[in-house]
Write a structure and sequence with these properties.
six-stranded antiparallel β-sheet, single chain, alpha+beta, 6 strands, 30% helix
Length: 121
């Protein structure tokens, strides 16, 4: 894992009143499935909803894209204390994560972010 230090990158997480986005371009269904599998295997708390309706998270990501219809599906993942990362199933070809930069402050949060990144997400 590359050593990153908060004093070098903390400026990136400055609160400018907006969520920060991270993207995976040219994604595949296997990439999307990895998200579901990692969330479950790590035991991270999560909430899944279709539209405004909370639902159980399907086992297969294909089921999410097939069922979403006119509603946006959203997965809120809580990989660490006080950290919420959301992903929206807009397109099978692009994964978007958004998070509040205030959730990631200090070296401990930076290490958590690196651990998430190195899980393949």
């Amino acid at each position: 894992m590359t050593d990153l230090y908060w004093e070098d990158v903390g400026w990136y997480f400055a609160d400018e009143g907006a969520l920060l986005d991270a993207y995976v371009f040219d994604a595949s269904m296997a990439d999307w499935q990895l998200i579901l599998d990692v969330v479950r295997s790590r035991g991270w708390p999560f909430d899944y909803s279709s539209g405004d309706t909370p639902e159980p998270l399907p086992d297969r990501v294909e089921d999410i894209f097939e069922r979403r219809g006119d509603y946006s599906a959203t997965l809120h993942i809580r990989p660490g204390a006080g950290v919420v990362v959301a992903t929206h199933f807009f397109s099978p070809e692009e994964i978007e994560f958004d998070f509040d930069p205030n959730d990631l402050q200090g070296q401990e949060a930076l290490v958590l972010q690196q651990e998430i990144r190195f899980t393949g997400l």
